Each structure stands twice: as C-alpha cells, then as structure tokens.
C-alpha cells in the first residue's frame, strides 16, 4: 500500500499545468528527434538538456521533460526504420526487419500504429516493473560497501559497449578515455591539481553537460558538414503511409507477443549496460523461435514489428531501475539523464527514494502520463510526423548547433565552456569515424570520481589489501556478471550483424 500512496503523491506532483505541458512538449519533440535518422534518444535528450536549464526548470520538471523526450524518441526512431529502412538508432535495427517490408506492401500506417501500441504496452508494463522493483533494489543496495560499488561500476563499464559495437576493445578504450577525462581537476584526497595544465577553468573538472552536448549533438553537426547530404531529401517522394489504424485481428494476433516481449525486455533493461538494444534483439529472436512456424518473420509479419517494439520500450523503462536505485545507468540515454540529476545536485542511489521522494515518484507518475500522451499523439498524427523526414538536414543541423551553443552559454555563462564543447564535438566526430562508442566516455566522465573514491576507500579500510575488491560473495557475483557482460556482446553483436547482412542480401536478390 505504501507504493500506491507514494504513486498517488507522485501524481499530485505531476498533475500540474506546467508538468503536463512539459510532458506533452517532451513527447512531441522526442518523436520528431527520434524520427530523424541518426539522432536517436541519446542525441535527442542531449540536444534538449540546454533547453531545460535555460528555462530555469527545477529537478522534477527537468526530468519530466527529458524522460518524455526519451520515450518519444524511442517511438520516433521507428518512423524512419519502417518508412525508409534506415534505423533511427540501435534498438530500431530489429524493427526494420519486418517494418520496412510491411511499408513496401502498402501497410506503413498500420506498421507505425502497431509499433505505437506495442511501445505503449512495453513502456506501461516496464513502469509498473520500475515501481515494484526499484524500492526492493534499494534495500539490496544498502548492503553495498565501497568494494561492491567499485565492482558495480566496473560491471557498468564492461557491459555498456552495446550489442552492435563491432569491437569490445574500442568500448574498453572509450571507457578508459572517459575515466581519464574524469581525472581532470583537483584531486579530492590530496588537493593537488591533475591534468589541468595551469588552466584555472579546469580546477573543478569537466562539466558533464558540456561533454554530453559536444559529443552527441555537435558531432552530429560535424558529420553532416563532412558529407553535406541527407536521406531526407531523396526519400521524401517515397513516403506513403496508407491506412493509419491496424485491424483488430492484427492487434489480437500481436497481443500475446507484446506481453511476452515486454517482460523479457524489462529484464534485459534492468541489467546495467544492456539497455534497449539487447531488449530489442532478444525479444525479436525469442519470438521468432516461438511463433514463426511458417517462416513469415522478415517478410512483413506484424508480430515481427510488435516484438522488438514492446521489448525495447520495456528495456528503456527497465534501464531507469539501476539508474534511480543504484546510481548506475542501464543505457546510454539513462547515462545522459544521470548527468542531469548530478547537475541538479541530486545523487541517484539508495538514499534518493528517502531524500527526494517527490522527484522519484513525480517522475514515475510522469512516465505513465507521457505514455498515454504518446499513444494519443502518435496514432492520429502519424502522417504529420512522417513529414519530419522531409526536413532538409541543411536546415536542421544549424538549428541543433544554435540550440547547443545558446543553451550551454546560458547554463554556465563561460566562453571557455563553449570552446570545451567544440573540442568534445571534434573528438566525438573523430571517434564516430572509427566506430568507437561514445556512451562509455560519458559514463567514465560521470562515474570516474565516484569509482576512484570507492576504490581508495575500500583499500584504505583493509590496510592496502587489493584482494578486498574480491572478498564478499556480492562483489564476486558482480565481477562474474561483468566478465560475462563483456564477452556476450561479441557473440550477440555478430548475430545482429549477420541478420542485417542476410536482410540486405535478400533485398538485393529481390531487386535483381
């Protein structure tokens, strides 16, 4: 009953005119951001962080806006996947397999609406999972000492490479780079400046938000400047939506699929670092083995759209569980949301539910509201959102750059931060050219100092004994999961890429 009482308090926080307006704005902007190929949820949230801070929003309204953007972008990425066959982000790769063939059959509107319904089911079940699981995880988290926290952070780094990352060595390099960036500033234990090169602005370390906006938003602009083209112009003439609502028979056929994959996706999302990519892949693969008796998956089967959509949206909700309860992001986008919380002087973790119940339960209530808003927005407005794909990148990218610069300067008032942001933008552009994932860099910058402090504390308590990191059964379990999590994407990623190649070969043979 405590849970229901807390949820009631959360709805009292969320049901203000300002918060409802922010949830609606976030859903709308998120869907548009997600619809544009290449942006995705992480970039969408990163681009709009400056807006939240420029408007002077408090912790709860900021989180409501940005999580609504997160949920909106998760759905929006399916628009380009289904209509153009271009995944808007990693989790959308599996939606392309059946969504794009449905569009080619003239069922684009039905596929988009079905993905909206599946997204709603997945996110709705995941939000209830968050309500029930996060407070229980908090109780377990209170058993954690410095050694266990260090192992937990190591687990997050080991598993955040992503299933589509071509090389775990690149993920490890990115994590090391992030940890190196976290070392910049005055050492909290000795008071000695590190890697500041005499620059006073660096004594406080690097600002998370400057790093995130530079790496995600500006690097996207630099990539556009390099190529000077975009699929939006070329594909505009091909967009035919057709019927907007799926028939009841299709929804009935897909309902068991949605329920099964929502639970599976939520479990995948709760694992630190697995996120929506793994949720999407596992949901599609398991459902194909379970129900694809006639070999229709990959040829426009509606269940092949419902499965990854419910799975990845459930995983998106599941990823919030370790972020709120343990302070460890479950995905790239929750790493960005963690940076927002830290910038607002709110520390996620076991004490968050006790110290800031209004923020936690207000956010959870807002997730329910945003979910219903997305369902109400997406089905009637599918036709409008598809027009977003016609916006030429030459117009869109300068707007992204302008929002980034104005927003960051509005937060800090420092021209030095703008130079740092440009530096991160160039670094993000170079790293993306070499297929180095950016999320571990953000995670390293965010968690590096906390990880270092826990390491020092654990070893100091045990008089310099390094084996204290492996002493308890809990830390040994975390280390074991970290090792498995580092190796798993090598296998899963290979399977994902094999599926995508098979699909490309099939399309090529059909075209011939």
Automatic annotation (TrEMBL):
Taxonomy, superkingdom = Bacteria
Annotated Pfam families: TctA
What keywords were assigned to this record? Answer: Membrane, Transmembrane, Transmembrane helix
The record, for InterPro entries, names: DUF112_TM
- Keyword Transmembrane present in the record's keywords: the answer is yes
Can you name this protein?
A: Tripartite tricarboxylate transporter TctA
Give the stretches traversing the membrane.
Answer: 20-39, 46-71, 111-133, 140-163, 169-186, 206-225, 263-284, 324-347, 359-385, 397-430, 476-496
- Keyword check for Coiled coil, yes or no: no
> Which species?
Alloyangia mangrovi
Where is each DUF112 domain found? Answer: 20-443
């Amino acid at each position: 009953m405590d849970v229901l009482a807390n949820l009631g308090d959360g709805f009292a926080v969320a049901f203000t005119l300002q918060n409802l307006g922010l949830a609606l704005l976030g859903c709308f902007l998120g869907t548009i951001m997600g619809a544009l190929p290449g942006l995705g949820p992480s970039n969408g949230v990163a681009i709009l962080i400056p807006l939240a801070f420029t408007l002077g929003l408090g912790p709860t309204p900021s989180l409501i806006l940005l999580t609504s953007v997160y949920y909106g972008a998760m759905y929006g990425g399916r628009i380009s996947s289904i209509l153009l066959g271009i995944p808007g982000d990693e989790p959308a790769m599996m939606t392309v397999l059946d969504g794009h063939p449905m569009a080619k059959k003239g069922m684009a509107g039905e596929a988009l609406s079905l993905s909206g319904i599946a997204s709603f089911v997945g996110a709705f079940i995941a939000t209830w999972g968050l309500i029930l699981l996060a407070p229980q995880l908090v109780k377990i988290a209170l058993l954690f000492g410095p050694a266990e926290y260090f192992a937990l952070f190591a687990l997050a780094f080991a598993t955040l490479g992503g299933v589509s990352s071509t090389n775990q060595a690149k993920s490890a390099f990115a994590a090391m780079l992030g940890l190196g960036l976290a070392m910049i500033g005055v050492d909290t234990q000795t008071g000695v400046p590190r890697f500041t090169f005499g620059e006073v602005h660096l004594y406080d370390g690097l600002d998370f938000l400057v790093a995130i906006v530079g790496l995600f938003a500006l690097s996207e602009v630099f990539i556009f400047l390099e190529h000077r083209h975009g699929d939006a112009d070329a594909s505009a003439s091909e967009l035919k939506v057709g019927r907007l609502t799926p028939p009841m028979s299709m929804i009935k056929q897909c309902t068991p699929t949605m329920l099964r994959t929502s639970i599976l996706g939520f479990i995948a999302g709760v694992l630190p670092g697995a996120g929506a990519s793994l949720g999407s892949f596992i949901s599609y693969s398991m459902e194909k083995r379970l129900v694809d008796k006639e070999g229709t998956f990959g040829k426009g089967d509606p269940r092949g759209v419902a499965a990854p959509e419910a799975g990845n949206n459930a995983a998106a909700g599941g990823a919030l569980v370790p972020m709120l309860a343990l302070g460890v992001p479950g995905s790239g986008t929750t790493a960005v949301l963690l940076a927002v919380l830290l910038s607002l002087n709110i520390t996620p973790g076991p004490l968050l539910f006790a110290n800031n119940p209004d923020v936690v339960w207000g956010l959870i209530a807002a997730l329910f509201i945003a979910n219903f808003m997305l369902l109400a927005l997406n089905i009637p407005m599918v036709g409008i959102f598809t027009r977003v794909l016609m916006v030429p990148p030459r117009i869109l990218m300068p707007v992204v750059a302008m929002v980034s610069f104005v927003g960051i300067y509005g937060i800090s008032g420092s021209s030095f931060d703008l130079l740092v942001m440009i530096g991160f933008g160039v670094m993000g552009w170079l790293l993306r050219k070499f297929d180095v994932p950016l999320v571990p860099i953000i995670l390293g910058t965010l968690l590096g100092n906390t990880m270092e402090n826990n390491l020092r504390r654990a070893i100091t308590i045990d008089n310099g004994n390094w084996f204290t990191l492996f002493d308890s059964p809990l830390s040994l379990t975390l280390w074991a999961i970290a090792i498995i999590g580092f190796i798993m994407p090598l296998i899963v990623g290979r399977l994902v890429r094999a599926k995508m190649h098979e699909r490309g070969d099939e399309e090529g043979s059909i075209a011939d």
